[in-house]
Design a protein that fits this description.
138 residues
């Protein structure tokens, strides 16, 4: 099972202001929203908040609208857009979930509720920081 850094997620009340800072002050490149197909949020499920993306060419920044109800609305415990998170990509999400289970680490499995092309799970490190691990899905 391979695991690599993928992105950092920051949340904000003003996503455009944050995106402007990272692109116009720090010089990161914009990644068009069309590069990230999202499922439609409906019946209170999913996430309809504004998202912008930036990159230095290797790592990505996902800048998302803060939403304190996402976990509750989706029947999960961990909220990835409350304080933000770091994210890793794996090539074997099933093996990674088995590892979390074996270590007794609780997680929220959002599947493809937020991104059509990624199976995402979220959990906490020992200090309470949110971590995402996802696998690209076809």
């Amino acid at each position: 099972m391979k695991l690599e850094f993928h992105h950092i997620n920051y949340v904000s009340e003003d996503v455009d202001r944050l995106h402007d800072f990272y692109t116009n002050v720090l010089g990161l490149d914009d990644i068009p929203i069309t590069s990230f197909p999202r499922p439609e949020a409906k019946d209170g499920k999913g996430y309809a908040g504004k998202i912008r993306f930036a990159t230095d060419g290797a790592m990505q920044m996902h800048l998302a609208e803060k939403n304190l109800r996402v976990a509750f609305d989706n029947g999960e415990v961990i909220n990835p857009v409350e304080r933000g998170h770091i994210a890793f990509r794996t090539d074997d999400i099933a093996a990674f979930l088995a590892l979390l289970d074996a270590k007794g680490i609780p997680y929220s499995d959002y599947g493809t509720a937020f991104a059509k092309e990624w199976h995402q799970v979220f959990f906490h490190d020992p200090e309470g920081n949110v971590i995402e691990v996802h696998q690209a899905v076809a």
